[in-house]
Specification:
elongated
Amino acid sequence: MWTIVAAVLIAVALYVVENYGGNGFVPSWDQIYQWVGLEPSQSETTAPLPEGKTEVVFLDVGQGDAVLILQNGAACLIDAGPKDARQNLVQDLRSYGVSQLDLLAEYFLNRQTLMILALGLVAFVFDTIGGVLVAKVYNLFAKQKINPMIGAAGISAFPMSARVVNKMGLQEDNQNFLLMHAVGVNVSGQIASVIAGGMILTLFA
C-alpha cells in the first residue's frame, strides 16, 4: 500500500514541477538540478561537432521535451512547445550555438502526419486483402490447399495479425489452430517490409 502511495506522490510531484515549475514557490528543473549539485544540460555551451557527427539534445519546453538534432552545422528542431515557452527555448538554442534552424517540425500532429497515418492504414487494408487473394489464387493450382486466412498475416504487424487470424479461425472451428502457420507468414511479412524499406531508401533517399 505504501508503495502505491509513494508512487502517486512522486507522480504528482513530477506533474507539478513539469507544469508549474518556476512559478511562485514551485521550483523549476533548473533549480532542482542546482540544489543537488548538477548543471542543467540546456545551460551548457557545446563546442562545434566534428564533421559527420550527430548530436541529439532534449530541451524542456514545459509540456514535454523538444528534440534538437545537430549535424554538420545543420540544426533540426522537433516540437517547439507552447508559445509561452518560446523565449526559454530560444535561449537554450543559443546556448548550443544555434542561431538559425534548417528544419522545424513545430507540431507533431499536423496535416502531413495525418496523411502518413492514413496511408499506413490504407497499406494495412490492402496488404490484408492482397494476402487473402494471393492465398486463394495459390489454392487454384496447389494440390495441397492452405487456409487463405493466413495470407492476412503477411504484414509487418507482429504478432497481432497472426493472433487475430488465429482467433478468427477458432471462432469458426474450435479445432482450427492457425497460430503457428500465421506466425510464420507474419515473420515473412516483416522480412519483406524491411527489404522493401531498404530498397526505397536506396532508390529515393
